[in-house]
Amino acid sequence: MKAITMSLHKRTGLEGEKRAQAFLRRQGYTILETNWSSLYGELDIIAEKAGQLIFAEVKARRGADTEAALANITAAKQERMLKAIYHYLDHRGLDWDSPWRIDVIAVALDSSGGARIAHVEDAFDW
Q1: Stretch (H or E) spanning 11
Q2: Other beta carbons within 10 Å of 96
Q3: Which end of the chain is more exposed for a tag (fewer CB within 10 A), N or C?
Q4: Alpha carbon distance 107, 67 (integer Å)
Q5: CATH of 8-120, one of 3.30.470.20, 3.40.1350.10, 3.40.50.720, 3.40.47.10
Q6: pTM, to two decimals
Q7: How far apart are CA 94 and CA 116, in angstroms?
Q8: pLDDT above 90 covers what percent of the chain?
Q9: DSSP-assigned states of every residue in 60-101
Q10: What is d(CA 47, CA 55) in angstroms, rounded to the nearest whole number?
């Protein structure tokens, strides 16, 4: 029987999401959902803080630099995220005008097991 191994890319992404969730909790956010899927794509982290919903996109990379991860969110990805967010709001019976924002969390995982995290609030300034 052939063993199935998770790709390095997938492991990096999962580790980055785990680190991002822990980071947000330490900052006082409540994690509501993770990896919420819709027809338009996946929302990595849905959190709440001070009555505002936060839709956090997590980008993780191996190395010391978070900039490469932040630069990897294309206009097409932003559009898919926005559609997924509206679908989430509809699915939960929430008004589109309710307070929410999109954050980006870049996680740079180093070879010693450490991580650098950059959190950009209201990243796309909708």
Answers
A1: helix 8-26
A2: 9
A3: N
A4: 9
A5: 3.40.1350.10
A6: 0.88
A7: 34
A8: 65
A9: EEESS-SHHHHTT--HHHHHHHHHHHHHHHHHTT--TTSSEE
A10: 7
CA-nearest of 14, 8, 32 to 107 is 14
CB-facing half-sphere around the CA of 90: CA atoms within 13 A: 8
Task: Please say whether the beta carbons of 34 and 58 come within 8 A.
Answer: no
The 10s digit of each residue's pLDDT in 16-69 is: 999 999 999 999 999 999 999 999 999 999 999 999 999 999 999 888 677 876
How many other CB atoms sit within 10 Å of the CB of residue 117?
A: 17
Angstrom distance (rounded) from CA 74 to CA 5: 29
CA distance 103 to 106: 10
* CA gap 33, 41 in Å, rounded: 14
Structural domain boundaries in the chain? 8-120
